[in-house]
Specification:
Belongs to the bacterial solute-binding protein 3 family. With 260 residues, this protein is of the alpha/beta class. It has helices spanning 2-19, 51-60, 74-82, 160-168, 179-189, 215-234, 236-244, 251-258, and strands at 32-37, 66-71, 89-93, 101-102, 109-111, 114-118, 135-139, 153-157, 174-177, 196-200, 205-212.
């Protein structure tokens, strides 16, 4: 009986040890962080330049961790972070994501959906009040504006290309979607942006550098959370946003800046 009890105790200890991190991560162990994002002009250029790449490099490279960037379409990139151990992090995810990801304290940008409508339609932009008594479209199941706040006719569509088609056919007065998706759909349709007016939706959503669900990510996030206030204090983070002239400094990062 004592032998059985001893074996059980040893087995339990071995299982606990196998489930624990094999080593405490530190700078001497981590030399490279692999980060992936789609190609977004001036945000994540394919050549490794852009707002997002500059921020991530400013966070990690002074800490002795080289940033290895990759450009991959969104859906495939997400799978390579969440399902396959290819990349350590992906740029551009929301914190309420349903994917198994870990997030730092500080967002990297604020995403605002774009409102698009044809020029010459006599529409005067007045924020959300502009939608009143008009036909507004967005992708099915987006639920951008709660139903009890809608004083307009909603027409949902399957994808952005369909929405742009409906807009050009006069079946929609206004379209709401992500700007990069709108730009791509207009390009594919051979229609110039000069034929439309575009505005940002009033409410924005923070987007993050989102990390794989792993023990390594805890260390990478710790570095990220430590370095962002340091970069603000040095004025380097503000300089990066000013250099590129795109994106928006998230609210809690702006609070750090205001406290300087």
């Amino acid at each position: 009986m004592r032998i059985v009890l001893l074996l059980t105790t040893l087995l339990t200890a071995l299982m606990a040890h196998s489930n624990a991190p094999s080593a405490e991560f530190s700078a001497q162990h981590i030399k490279v962080v692999n980060v992936v994002a789609p190609e977004w002009p001036d945000f994540s250029n394919k050549d490794g330049t852009g707002l997002y790449w500059d921020v991530v490099k400013a966070v990690y490279e002074p800490a002795g961790i080289r940033v290895k960037h990759a450009t991959v379409p969104w859906n495939r990139a997400m799978k390579m972070v969440t399902k396959y151990p290819v990349y350590n992090a992906i740029i551009g995810e929301y914190k309420d994501s349903e994917e198994p990801l870990r997030f730092p304290d500080y967002a990297i940008d604020v995403e605002r959906l774009a409102v698009l409508y044809p020029v010459g339609k006599g529409i005067e932009w007045q924020q959300q009040a502009t939608f009143s008594n008009r036909t507004v479209g967005w992708i099915k199941d987006y639920e951008i504006i709660p139903q009890d706040q809608r004083d307009f006719t909603l027409r949902e569509f399957r994808d952005t290309a369909d929405g742009v088609g409906l807009l050009m056919e006069g079946k929609l007065d206004m379209l709401i979607d992500e700007w990069d998706e709108i730009a791509m759909a207009l390009q594919e349709a051979g229609v110039g942006i000069e034929n439309f007016e575009m505005h940002d939706m009033p409410e924005g959503t923070d987007v993050y550098v989102a990390f794989a669900d792993s023990d390594l990510s805890n260390y990478l996030i710790e570095v990220y959370n430590r370095r962002i206030p340091e970069l603000v204090k040095e004025g380097k983070l503000q300089a990066i946003y000013q250099k590129w002239g795109v994106g928006e400094i998230p609210a809690n990062v702006q609070t750090l800046i205001d406290q300087q």
